Amino acid sequence: MVRFENVGMRYGAGPEVLRDVTFTLEAGSFTFLTGLSGAGKTTLLKLINMTQPPSRGLVTLFGRDLSVTKRAEFPALRRRIGVVFQDFRLLDHLSAFDNVALPLRLAGNRPADYAQDVEELMSWVGLGDRMKARPPTLSGGEQQRVAIARAVVARPDLLIADEPTGNVDAEIGQRLIRLFVELNRLGTTVLIATHDRALIEGARAREMRLVDGRLIEMRSAA
Amino acid sequence: MASRESPSAILPRDKGAAPLDVVIAVMAFLAALALGASLIAERTALGWRAGLSDRLTIQILPPAKGATESLEQEVDAALLVLRATPGIAHAAPLTQEQTLALVQPWLGADALVAELPLPRLIDAKIAPGAEVDLPTLGAQLKQAAPDSLLDDHARWISRLKGLADAITWSAYGILLLIAIATAAAVSFATRAGLEAHHEMVELLHQMGAQSNFIARAFERHYFRSALGASALGAALAGVFFLLAGGLEFAGIEAVPFLPPITLKVTELPWLLAVPAVSGLIALGTARLSVLAVLREIY
To answer: Could you tell me which of B252, B248, B259 has the C-alpha nearest to residue B48?
Structure first.
């Protein structure tokens, strides 16, 4: 699904943020990416999402070597990835419902075809009564749940999430992690970058830790 | 449930979009005026040509020292020739009063004018579909009435056609300039819109949106905006033409001898072309601008 081989990444002439990172995410796997703030977690997720090319090394996604993949093919690959951004990145002029439905619109689906699925998902994440609300009127936790629902609504092949439970209480956090686990059971490969030890211990999944830009394998899947 | 309604437009309505709407509305107003002017010019030229193309005017110039009798004899001789010519349906001399009425707009109705040595005029009408050999007729008239001049209005018709063509092509030139200015304004606004919404565009790209999807969002946005603004501009121009017609009915003539600056009701629908074309220009310009910028960035 995802393969990094000796990947290095630096911004401009700065120091390397990632150094010789090598790992593989097998299809259907569930993995936590941990590390202190500034360790390079977000950068690694950006490389997977093709937002930036690596400074060196090889990134393979869905069996495609990204260094030789045409840019015109990136959108189709990106639509197979669900992303939960650390800063949510919701569109303020759209309702919570329309934000969640955005990946389905991008895939060319009609509202009549996806409305029920979106409503059910929003009820599941506890936003059944906030569908018409616009993001600026939502609390941080509600915005985060909208961002998560948007990332999973199209049942992506790969889900990458950057601190997805940072703004929600423990109960909602557990509910969200159950959502990720359920999605993983349905076949989605999941990679979650987090500080939340309770989340990691609860899921008993593989853990990779970034320390000073280097990747250390902490724990294999249970 | 409200969430099942049509989804909102991807691109938000900009708070600062009003100036572009005003620019497009003004452009559309000017474009509709230019289009109306070309319609009036074409219609008037057609009317002039239709009115003159089957008419002949024969002038009998007055002799140097007022021999009125010989002038009248020449008029009668010319009439005889005309009435004997196949294809001439009607020929009649203009009375002195009719001749004076013709020069009145230029020279006034002063008593002195009546004393001027004016030529006698004969108005002749060619039968519909008939072919008259004008050089031969001219020669026959010259023989019968040596001071006669045959005028088939070809020179006038040619000048009028030239004038009408000049007005029409000037109007087309103005329309082209307005189209270019509209496209430039929309292109500028689109680039500014992309800059203002770069975070949204970046997010859509990261979610796998094709450039076409983003371009469509922008083109729809500017198409609707231009359609509304230019419809307002064209409507105002329509009101202008109707008011100009009202002035005409009230007996206020802007410029004597020129056609009234008004459109017929059957011509007004042509003004609908202005918002339609304006919308399409905005749509095409926005699309090309967005795709060009996205190619540069992504």
So the answer is: B259
